[in-house]
Amino acid sequence: MSDILSLARPEIVALKAYSHASWDPAFDRLHANELPWRAETDRSIAGLNRYPEPHPRALAQRLAELYGVNAAQLLPGRGSDESIDLVVRGFCRAGVDNVIICPPTFGMYAVAARIQGAEVREVPLLSGDFSLDSAAVLAACDASTRVVFLCSPNNPTGNAMDSAAVQQVLVALAGKALVVVDEAYIEFSGDASLTQSLARFPNLVVLRTLSKAFGLAGARVGSLIAAPEIVALLAKVIPPYSIPQLTIEAVLTTLMPPQLAVQRERVAQVRAERERVCAALTPKKSLRRLWPSVTNFLLADFADAEVTLAAARDAKLLIRDMRNVSPHSLRISVGTPEQNDRLIRSLA
Prior knowledge:
This protein is α/β, with parallel strands linked by helices. It has helices spanning 10-13, 57-67, 79-91, 108-116, 134-140, 163-172, 228-235, 245-254, 257-281, 305-314, 337-346, and strands at residues 74-77, 98-101, 119-122, 145-151, 178-182, 204-209, 222-225, 287-290, 297-302, 320-321, 329-333. The protein has two domains: 3-255, Type I PLP-dependent aspartate aminotransferase-like (Major domain) (Aspartate Aminotransferase, domain 2, 3-Layer(aba) Sandwich), CATH 3.40.640.10; 258-346, Aspartate Aminotransferase, domain 1. It contains eleven helices and eleven strands. It has a seven-stranded mixed beta sheet, sandwiched between helices. The protein has a four-stranded antiparallel beta sheet with strand order 8-9-11-10. β2, α4 (108-116) and β3 (119-122) form a beta-alpha-beta unit. α9 packs parallel to α11. 38% of the residues are buried. The mean pLDDT is 94.
């Protein structure tokens, strides 16, 4: 057994995956108890009366090309949420193991761990700039630590973690725990992905998503990228047919070169709008602090968060109440130029 799989739940390592019906589009299907006719409203290519490919190889291959990895290193799933859940279910024993999170951060790490019955240990980001306290993270780990979740760029703070600090955690936890780096917002930062470090760090798991920069939040497609042994293990846990046929077809179309060119233009526009909104908000008397961001959102502290929320609602805009981060914090997604103009006017 691979060293990294010694960290996994033994019952998952021993698990025999569900045996699904054979999948071969070259044959007529009389083996999966499907209806032989399409619905009248079905405009899909493959037909929605048929189950999709149990573990879609064409989608995995295209996503692997997009992220510059081998297809054996990538497991597609329903957004990053499913990938987070798979890691916890595959590696954490209920009532025994623990995970480390660094708040303020994405809430699903703790939710997935608690559903599984794993202990959640919190190591807060440093208060001055929301940077990673790598020494404190390592101090919180013990023999029962199975997963450390790091979000970079971080949600809801918007900052990227120092790569040296992340690598310090990876080196120290080699053979001891997985380090899951969630890169949901990396396209907006321009930083290089840690996927290029997979060969150096067998305990590294990288999460990517099409929900943000690719405009496919409604399609719910994320990628877990890791050593092939980890991918093969978690492929036994993920349900077959988890990604619908319409989603597979939409994603493959969206990842064609002409659409990728449009995606790059839109990311550039979001980055430009982010800077414009920052410049417009900075002089506002209601603003107490605007935190640096490399994402498609801004974390801002206002003198009166309730008044600011109400003003945005009056302008028919929803912004996120983040007063669980600090008593004055709100999170603002970068919208279209027209939406951003409305936001700026609402805070006048």
